[in-house]
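Entry for the shared binder. Reason: the reviewer on the internal report wants the predicted structure included alongside the sequence.
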Amino acid sequence: MTVVLVLLAVLLVFVITLLAKTVRIVPQARAGIVERFGKYKQTLPAGLNIVVPFIDKVRYLIDLREQVVSFPPSSVITEDNLTVEIDTVIYFQVIDPVAATYEIANYIQAVEQITMTTLRNIVGGMDLEQTLTSRETINSGLRGVLDEATGKWGIRVGRVEIKSIDPPPSIKDTMEKQMRADRDKRAAILTAEGQRQSAILTAEGQKQSAILQAEGQRESQILRAQADREAAILRAQGEGQAIQTVFQAIHDGQPDQSLLAYQYLQMMPKIAEGDANKVWIIPSEFNEALKGLGSTMSQLQGIPQEVDGPRTRVDMGPAEPQLPRGANRDDGELSEANEAVQAAIREAASAAEPRSSSSASASASNAGTGLEAGTDPSIDPVDVPPEPPADPAAPPVS
């Protein structure tokens, strides 16, 4: 009974082992390489597969998914004899499990070695600047070489990427200094451009300010000149009216030689004023005025109460000064006003100084007093008493 149980147990183990050797399950995206007596028999697809136990053997289980392999940094010398460390990443996929199994012993190591050698060939023809800026060129070159080399191995290279390119520390320091100098240069250029724009804007602002100030000064000077012009016109009109008033008062008062002599006596203290007036000259008219004053004072009882002669009124003009109609008054009106003022000044001067215009006043005095043209002009009119007025009923003297 015991022997039977042992045999049954051995038979059960044999059956289980036989089933395990017969039924093989291949996972998804995998491929099983079956060998019979050491020779390739078939490739098992994914799923449940039956093989001959103890004769067929699943030697390799190949992964058919795309794989990523990162290789360690490799030292590469550039064309300008600088050593750089380059890290690469390979994306590949097994498309023929039989070729990947029997054509090469270790396809990952083979891809790594081909990558290193190809990378040295490509980078050896570039300088450091090109190496740092030509990643796409290096990637394309590596991919082309790897596709051509790994095609017979049943491998397809999808992508090749350069992960990093590390130049020597001294080169890094030099490059950092160069980049820093380049940045400083750009910063200086931008600063200079900003200062230039600021100076241009400042100059334009000063220009506009100067133009506005000049325009303001011009308008101010024009208004000031117009105001001065109007003030001068008003001042001239006032002086003209003052002269006309004085001249009118002189005509209304009808002054004689005695008044002139009295005025001379009043001027004597003013002539002698001042400590520096040690010597002063008495004009000849003053002596004649004194003589007339003496004769006048000796005949105080004979001074007439009213001087005979015609009274002539002088046109005083408007009582209020005539303001200009505007800043652009006609020059003809201004010239007429100036001529009227000058004429009034001349008339007042001729009335205040009768001696200087004796020839002009001789004819007027002869016509007023009845003197003939042959009268001696050297005789002072003060010494000659006025003639009585002519009777209007008397016949004219022939």
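Summary line for the report: Confidence is low (pLDDT under 50) at residues 296-305, 326-330, 354-398.
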